[in-house]
Amino acid sequence: MSKKKLKILMPFDFPFDPATLPDENYGAHLPPEDWRAEHKVILAIKKCGHEAIPFAVHNKIQPLINKIRDDKPDVIFNMLECFDNDRRHESNFAGLLDLMGVPFTGCPPVSMTLCRNKFFTKRILAPHRIKFPKSVIFPLGITNRSLKKLEYPLFIKPLGQEGSDGITQSSFAETESACLSRVKFIHDSLEVDVLVEEYIEGREIYASVLGNDRLRVLPLREMIFSKFPEDKPKFATFKAKWDEDFRKKWGIKNTMASNIPEDVEKRIKKISRTTYKALGLSGYGRLDIRLTPDNEIYVIEVNPNPNVSDDDELALSAKKANIPYHKLIGKIINLALA
Question: 207 and 315, same structural domain?
Answer without folding.
Answer: yes
